[in-house]
Predict the structure.
Amino acid sequence: MKHDPDTLFAQFAERIGYLIDPGIKVGGNYTAVVADGDQVFVSGQTPRVGDRMAYTGRVGAEVALADAQRAAQICALRALTLLQRELGTLSRVRKILRVNVFVQCSAEFTQISEVGDGASEVFATVLGPAGLHTRTSVGVFALPKNAAVEIDLIAAAQPFNA
């Protein structure tokens, strides 16, 4: 039985045990989502659940790889929440074009791409072929609020009149 992306999204969030609040708040003088033509840009999303950061610290030191992958999944779920809110339904996502993954990590940690695999799994599971994307994963010294991971993305959407 084929499920629509909105159903798959809800099932994935429930399976990993993190229901993302659709009322995601912006913490500064910017917007979380900008649509321009058929492209939708989603600002960086950290693994915040409700009012708390679910994963903080340096991956490879205070945060294990599996936990960092889970953090990346939460970031991806938050990004999809914003896309869903902007587009009305995830069925309008034609393609995830680009994902950037930022990992706050120790100097010795080199499995940065494997952290990004957590986010990529979400996009592939929820959106199928439309979730396959280009990706850059980088290790960084610090992230907002000591988040272990942050992602942003660019998606292509079907026009409203299509």
About this structure: The chain is about 30% helix and 25% strand. The chain has one domain: 5-18+33-157. The chain has a mean pLDDT of 92.
